[in-house]
Amino acid sequence: MREKTGILIFSRSTDIECSVKKFDGNQSFFESQKERLENLCSKTGLDTIWYNEHLQVGGNFGERFCNSISSVFSKGYNSLIIIGNDSPQLKYYHLQSSIDSLQSGRVSLGKSFDGGFYLLAIKKQHFNYPEFLNLSWNTSKVSSEIIQLLQTKAKVSFISTLKDVDNQLDFSSLLNFSKQLYTDVILILKRIQKFFDFNFQNPSLFNEKIIFGSFQNKAPPILSRVCRTS
Fold it and tell me: Domain of life here (predicted)?
C-alpha cells in the first residue's frame, strides 16, 4: 500500500500573526507568505493541511505543535512535512528534498539560524508524543535536542539553514539574504526602508527579475506602490 504523505503548515492566521509579530510591513509580508506557501505546496501534489489557532489545541507552543502532528497522523497520514509560515527563503527544492528523504526512509530537518527549525519531515513511527513534548520548545536548544532525538530513530538528512522572521530585526536583516528572496519580499523591504541602497545586487538584474517574473511572484500592487514612492 502506498504511503500517504501530507504537508502540515503549523501557523497562526495572518491577522493573529501580525498582532503577535508587530513590525513594519508585517501584513504584506504574511499575506505574501500565505499565497506563496499555497503555491509551493500545490506543486508537490501532496495534501496541504493548515493548522492555525482555531485548530491548535494546548496550553503552550509544545503542546499545540505536538497535538497538531498527532491529530494529522490520526487522519491516516503515514508521513508529514511540517513547516511554518515565517521563512521567506523556503523554496520548492527544500520541500522536494524532504520528500526524497522520506521516500528513502530518512527524516529531514531544516534548521533556522536562531536555534529552531523551519521544516521537519518525519514518518508516523518516528513520532513519539511524550518525547517530542519534552523538548525545549521556543528556545535556542530545540534544534539540537530534536536532532539527538531523531538520530535514535532514523538517519537524519539536513537541508539548508534559513532565516525565520519573528520581529523587526529579523525582518530587516533579510536584506543580508536578498539574493535568496522572492521579488515580493524585496519590494516590501524596499517600501518600508526608503533609504535602503539597492547596491546589494545589480540594479539591471533586479529590474529584470521584477519585469519578467524570474522569482515567479509578480506582486503587482506592491510594485506599483514602490514605483510611486521611489
Answer: Bacteria
